[in-house]
Amino acid sequence: MHLIQDENGNPCPHSHEHEHAHCGGCGQAGHDHEGHAHAHGKEVSGDKMTALLDYMLKHNEHHAAELDQVAGKLQAEGKAAAAEQIKKAVDEFQKGNLYLSLALSMVKENS
After folding, report:
1. I need a surface site. Which of 39, 80, 90, 109 has the fewest CB within 10 A?
2. Res. 110 pLDDT band, cuts 50 70 90
3. What is the mean pLDDT of the segment spanning 3-24?
């Protein structure tokens, strides 16, 4: 797992496999995914974890809504098969968001 930072500089840990370059000769691993600057090797705990989970849940809900709009546009353009695949993806996003919401509730309970 490594950390990303949101648009406000808040740490957001996540884990996924991908290639990335180390910044120009400084030896520090880091990269940027559409506005999320990644910083490796930092830890998050306590209230920051609650804030992080809340942020990630809202972020994912936003992406699901955007994808749903894309599916609607594709449907209107007569691309029903592509729209259906996106709708399936949105269903999976929503399922994942349910788990994130449950985890967030559990973390808040134990704080």
Report:
1. 109
2. confident
3. 46
4, amino acid identity: I
3-21 average pLDDT score: 47
Cβ atoms within 10 Å of 71's Cβ, excluding its own: 21
Instruction: Give me 41's structure tokens.
Output: 């090797």
Domain segments of the chain: what residues? 2-39, 47-109
Instruction: In whole angstroms, give the CA distance from residue 74 to residue 89.
Output: 14
Q: How many residues appear in the chain?
A: 111
Complete edge-to-edge strand list for the sheet that includes strand 30-33: 11-14, 2-5, 36-39, 30-33
**Residue type for position 15:** S
